[in-house]
Records
---
Amino acid sequence: MIDDHRDKFAITRMCRVLDVSPGGYYAWRTRPVSAREMANRQLIEKIKAVHTASYVAPRRPAPVAAARPARPPATSQSPNLPEDSPSTSPQSSAP
């Protein structure tokens, strides 16, 4: 974090804000990479290689219009009832 912002802020100020001693920061910078960190880096590279080799792009479905048959045009009358049917007339016969 301190290394990322060295060009914007003074190291001593960042150390004070982050409650890190400047000597500790400089000692950390010169310290060699630990065996654990090197093993983690190698593992990350292997994971990335396996992921890249096994990744398959997701399939995209066909457009909906092509997958569904066309509908007949809508009509204002019911296709099962004749035009003069009593069930479709607005007036009912009263005795």
---
Amino acid sequence: MLALDQPKRSATSGFLDWNLADFHGSSTRISLVLREHGHTIQAEVFGVFFLPFYLRSGGLPDNNHPFELVANEYARGGSAIP
């Protein structure tokens, strides 16, 4: 796991929380700030290939998009790299 791959909790964490429904119908609150930070890390790692990889992985974001699933996992404390 990369050092920059660790979620950072700050004063803004929790300010923009998001209810995320999973496939079992239960809801989890995640920080939207951390979720979007996961996408920033993905873009830093993949560089100019981020957008082509993102679009090739499923096009528009939905509940099954790999980059979105990994960003959600990052917001829960996991890795930001698919």
---
Amino acid sequence: MASGRVPKTLRTVGWEVTRGDSTARAGARLRREPAREGRRYDLLLINPPYDALYDVIPVLDRHLAAVAAPGARVVVEAAAGSPVELADFTLISRRRVGAAELSIFSPVNVGADD
């Protein structure tokens, strides 16, 4: 999606990107309170609109590690056949579910603080 606009709602770890928000604004919301307050999450579910996946991934790459606890699981839903990779995360599993594909990641810092 060349415009960098997210056409539908995307929610994760207490932030929300609504119709018309730019991915830059999404990043600002992601790093806002949770990271500033030191909150970390064990499970993060990322379900962007399929046509915005590759606009959202750079935002996640910049900010997701700040809110993922050591040993966390990050599940990213995408259209089947759309490869997903995240910086600072290791792919654990990829599963097809109908027309979707779930990619399950863990931070590379697994075991660092466990």
